[in-house]
Amino acid sequence: MVGLFLSITFAITLGSVEIKPTTVWKIALSKIPMFTQWIEVDWSKGEQTIIWDIRFPRVLLGAIVGAGLSVVGVAIQSLVRNSLADPYVLGVSSGASVGATSVIIFGAFSMYGQYALSFGAFTGSLVSIILIFTLSRIGGQNSTVRLLMAGIAISAILSAITSLLVFSAPNEHGIGTVLFWLSGSLAGGKWEYLTIPSLIVVICLIVLMAQYRSLNAMLMGEESAGTLGVNTVQFRKFLLVITALLTGVIVSIAGSIGFVGLMMPHIVRVMVGSDHRRVLPVSALFGAIFLIWVDVVARLAFAPEELPIGILTALCGGPFFIWLMLRSSYSFGGSGR
């Protein structure tokens, strides 16, 4: 938690206008009624706008998205029982992108008002993960190779559909918005956008932690989990919904950001073992810190231009994925080849 606190603090201070760390938290505390009278205002109005209205919500959004991607990575790896699984790699994010793109460009799901984007992304991710999982199990097999092939195939189809939607866009503004959003960005971070993602990530984390015994049992295989009292059919459906919900909400607010859910859970398992009681919270913490600093690099590397954050996570995650794939064993509970 100290690392997260320090990451948030210094990420907010970094930018074209440098600000002292103490000023960051003075401004933050001044927004809390019980502390207002104790805080001496020694900052300018411009500094307050930069910190409170621009940088603070963006950094917090980065922490929420990073934590959420890591949690969904843990869930989907338990669902398919191998460490190569990730919403981006398996094509779940592509499904969410189709749903969200249809909302941005054509106004689909408009009956849900301000929640249309989240609902569209959730629907797309749920459909894609069901398709991938069903396709991988045709013939009674469920190997890692079949799962990855199914994910690649569905992802390619969904990416093509997204491109077709963009090509059919009635205006150029919508095209530009979607193309930048598809590469992932936290530039739209505002206070009013933080509530729903925060609640969903926290609730899903708590719910999954309450089911840590079932998650641990699933690592040993469906038969072993069944003998331990886990209703594997119902639990898989539960994990499908959790995975789709988290992926949909994250994609709707930050776009398609890959490989965070692949890297963080694997790194954490090396450090703390495979017990989900520890893996889930530590993965969320590491994911939050990681994405905060990736976003700092995205903001500053080519300033004043901003680099889409998905490019940087892919540069980190691609080599990590290759290294993981080339290891002698990359599945849980036995060989997945």
Description:
The protein has 2 domains: 1-47, no CATH class; 58-320, ABC transporter involved in vitamin B12 uptake, BtuC (Orthogonal Bundle). It is built from 15 helices and no strands. The protein has helices at residues 2-13, 21-30, 33-36, 45-80, 92-106, 116-136, 144-167, 172-182, 195-210, 212-218, 222-227, 232-254, 260-272, 276-300, 309-326. Helix 4 crosses helix 13.
Short characterization:
This protein has 337 residues and is mainly α. It has 15 helices and no strands.
CATH architecture of the largest domain, please? Orthogonal Bundle
**Helix segment tally:** 15
- Which oligomeric form is depicted? single chain
- By CATH's scheme, which homologous superfamily of the largest domain applies? ABC transporter involved in vitamin B12 uptake, BtuC
Number of strands: 0
- Estimated structural class: mainly alpha
CATH domain topology of the largest domain: ABC transporter involved in vitamin B12 uptake, BtuC
Q: Whole-Å distance between the termini?
A: 38 Å
Main attributes of the structure:
15 helices, ABC_BtuC-like, cell membrane, 72% helix, ABC transporter involved in vitamin B12 uptake, BtuC, transmembrane, transport, 337 residues, transmembrane helix, mainly alpha
What is the topological layout?
Layout: H1 2-13, H2 21-30, H3 33-36, H4 45-80, H5 92-106, H6 116-136, H7 144-167, H8 172-182, H9 195-210, H10 212-218, H11 222-227, H12 232-254, H13 260-272, H14 276-300, H15 309-326
Pfam families: FecCD
InterPro entries: ABC_BtuC-like, ABC_transptr_permease_BtuC
Protein name: ABC transporter permease
